[in-house]
Every structure is written in C-alpha cells, then in structure tokens.
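yo, Transcriptional regulator, XRE family is done. seq:
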Amino acid sequence: MPQRNADSETPQKAPNPIDIHVGGRVRLRRMLMGISQEKLAEHLGITFQQVQKYEKGTNRISASKLWEAAQVLGVPVSFFYGEMAETGQPSPAGLAEADGDTYVSDFIGSREGLQLMKAFMAIEDPRVRRRIIDLVESLAAKSG
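structure:
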C-alpha cells in the first residue's frame, strides 16, 4: 500500500528497491573517495539535498546524472548496479529497507568502516584480499 505524505492525504509511492540500491552505491563510492554530498552536488550541478534524495532512493537519478556521477566518482556506470541479481532486483545483502538505512550503510558510514574499506581497496592482490576475508570470518566466528 502506498505511504501517505504527512502533509497531505496524497499517497506517496515507496522508493523502488533498484533506486535505493543505485543510490546506496552512489553513497558508497562517494564516501570511499572522501567526497562530501556538497562537493558531489557541485560537480553535478544540483543541490546537496538532491544528492541526499538520490542516495536514499527517494528520487530516481536520471541516466545522464548517473553517467556524470560515474565520471566524477571514477567508476563505470555498471558499478552502481553492482551486486544486482539476474532478476534485476538487488541481492538480499544489497536490499535496503524502505527508509534507506541498513546495518551495511551504517557500517560504511562509520569511521571504522570507512577506514577498513579504504585499506582493503588499496590491496591489489585478490589472493591477499581473500585471505583477509577468511581471517575476518574466522575471527567473527570465534567471537560470535
């Protein structure tokens, strides 16, 4: 059932899961690069509030703005669709809740999460990355 806007009786559509996923990937890449919403907005010729709406999936980012964002963020457009299932739906791990917040995005937004991701992304050897993942999974299994 559509959500209702608090200011009116007009029904409001819930964000599309794909828009939430794409927006989350914009946020992920922006944060990995240490770029503020304001700076990204400036490069895209929009307001930082619009960037917020894109990142939450409440506003759908157009193809042209997505292409511009890819240029600014130094990734191919396909990056924003990463981890999508064959059905065109986000994979369960990438599916955000209706409000756009998940434990994954909370972690990514944390100082520790950002440090960990930047350090991990700096490791070029995929075998070393795999060993780190194995180590972290082993430590998590022992502590949980």
